[in-house]
Amino acid sequence: MPEDKKTEETPDSVEPDKELDTVKRVAFIVKIIAAIIVFLFIAVLVYMLYPRSPSGTISYNSDLEKLYAGRKSMNVGMCESIDNKDVKNTCIMNVAENRMDAGICAQISDKNVRQICMYRVVKKTKDKKLCEEMENPTIKEECLKL
Questions:
Q1: Is the pTM of this model over 0.70?
Q2: Under a CB-based contact definition with an 8 Å cutoff, are residues 130 and 118 in contact?
Q3: Is the pLDDT of residue 93 over 90?
Q4: What percent of the chain has pLDDT over 90?
Q5: pLDDT exceeds cutoff 70 at 14
Q6: 41, 55, 70, 120: which is deepest, by most CB within 10 A?
Q7: Same structural domain for residues 69 and 134?
Q8: 116 and 45, same structural domain?
Q9: Closest Cα partner for 76 from 106, 54, 115?
Q10: Is residue 137 part of a domain?
């Protein structure tokens, strides 16, 4: 019967394994650092390419501030300086609804939003004559039910 011989590990045979583990750890750390650098580079690139207003500043917050100011003051003039057309249309709609003035809705550039604006004014004023001016049959039908 052949005997199993155990090979004894000498201090020289252990050292290459430790060196290999150290090299693997260093390589792993280098990969993590490289990934972080790539992530930061992409984040800076995205920030630099983010849509900005002509003045060079991001206008989203100032547009929302103007929307709030227009709603609070019920002054449609506050809405005119808003860059984002959707926020601008919403501002005009809020002013029209709060002032109960469907004529203000005519300043809205989007046809569907304009009709929703008129619907909201009718809902407050109960003036169903405005419903007849609506082109969208669904909105017109709902308007006449008010």
A1: no
A2: yes
A3: yes
A4: 42
A5: no
A6: 70
A7: yes
A8: no
A9: 106
A10: yes
